[in-house]
Amino acid sequence: MMGNPEYLKFLTEGENLRTIKLSAMDREGDTVLHKACSRNEQEIDVVRHLVGLEKIKKNPRNKNKETPLHNAAALGHSDLVSELVENGANAGASDNTKQTPLHVAMLSDEDPTALAKIIIEGNPSLIREVDEKGNTPLHLAAQKGHEDMVSYIFDHLPFKTLDAATDYISKMNNEGKTAADLARDSGYPELEKRLYPPKEDSLTLIGKNRQACCCTVQ
């Protein structure tokens, strides 16, 4: 059924839909939507059809509490991520390691900036979320050496004060590591330097969207 949107459409229309269990899970707890988001971006027509079905669950969880959005984000499929988010996928859902799709996207070897923009633009507060190891998306982006992603996060920090933004950048994870520490440990000295921005450069810290931010300042 995967990879054949016309056949899928036939199976999920009219009387045929009664015989299809869209919420059925495999041994790992994955649904048909999980599977479609775990393949490649050529499945966009399949995903588009599935999320358009009234009876489909947009945020099913597998055994690891991962949603289809986690799967698409992990593989760097920005088109699939966009389709899911536009159709009600919960970008703030966390898996059993407390990672959101944004955390997962940061772990890619490829630059995740384009994909992350889709998630962050409607959910700026997700930048602040921490996983079970105390890592924010900034920690993980620094660890993987994603310079463009770090720049994007700096431009979209969901804080209205310089102190709050500085606290976020210097936040330590459960091992006492800041984002700068992780960049250094992973062999990205130039990125490490960028994670110690001068305090007077408040525009760089707080970002272009600071006035539009609706998040609570901590």
Keywords:
218 residues; mainly alpha; Serine Threonine Protein Phosphatase 5, Tetratricopeptide repeat; 2 domains; 13 helices; 44% helix; 0% strand; disordered N terminus; disordered C terminus
Structural features, described:
It is a single chain. With 218 residues, this protein is an all-alpha fold. It folds into two domains: 1-90, Ankyrin repeat-containing domain (Serine Threonine Protein Phosphatase 5, Tetratricopeptide repeat, Alpha Horseshoe); 97-218, Ankyrin repeat-containing domain (Serine Threonine Protein Phosphatase 5, Tetratricopeptide repeat, Alpha Horseshoe), CATH 1.25.40.20. It is built from 13 helices and no strands. It has helices at residues 5-11, 32-37, 44-51, 68-74, 78-86, 101-106, 113-122, 137-143, 147-155, 162-169, 179-185, 189-194, 202-206. The chain starts with a helix and ends in a 12-residue tail after the last helix. The relative contact order is 0.09. Residues 1-5, 14-19 and 208-218 have low confidence and may be disordered.
Low-pLDDT runs: 1-5, 14-19, 208-218
The CATH architecture category of the largest domain equals Alpha Horseshoe
User: SSE order in H/E notation?
Assistant: HHHHHHHHHHHHH
SS element count, helices = 13
Please give the share of residues in helix. 40-55%
What number of domains?
Answer: 2
CATH superfamily of the largest domain: Ankyrin repeat-containing domain
Largest sheet: none
Which of globular, elongated, flat, extended, rod-shaped describes the shape?
elongated
Please identify the structural class as seen in this structure. mainly alpha
Distance between the termini: 48 Å
- State which percent range the strand residues make up: under 5%
Q: CATH class of the largest domain, anyone?
A: Mainly Alpha
What is the third-level CATH name, the topology of the largest domain? Serine Threonine Protein Phosphatase 5, Tetratricopeptide repeat
